Amino acid sequence: LADHTDLEAYCADWRNSPPQFGHKQSLLRAVAAIARRLHRGGVCHRDFYLCHFLRPNSAGEALPISLIDLHRAMIKPQLGMRWKIKDLAGLYFSAMDIGLTRRDLLRFVSLYSGQPWRQALCSETVFWKKVSARAEKMYRKHNPQQC
Predict the structure, then answer these.
(1) 2, 69, 96, 116: which has the fewest Cβ within 10 Å?
(2) Mean pLDDT of all residues in 29-49
(3) Which of the residues are catalytic?
């Protein structure tokens, strides 16, 4: 897609120069909605990182987000927990250095699960712990100097 920027590059300086609150929340909503729709539809991206989400450079605050690199996607009648964990851990890993707050992460959990975050974390404790543990393991592997 011409004249687009991937979210990894777009969000790279957020730690030093945070975006407006509403804009960040719109992006969280858009990414969570895509993840939720994929997984509920039985699709595992298998390479689910911020760099595969694109936004048009001319969009301003509008957020038509596109997901690319679906060539490795796996489609199953019902996607198992393992594949959802893999996707979400990859996404979390790729977002670890962009300056998301704990509230941002909890908001994503709520948006993805369709439940208030407290309820989602209580009813799916094992799932979210596995997502976090896998993302942290990936982070330690790729950034040993920061651990």
Answers:
(1) 2
(2) 97
(3) 47
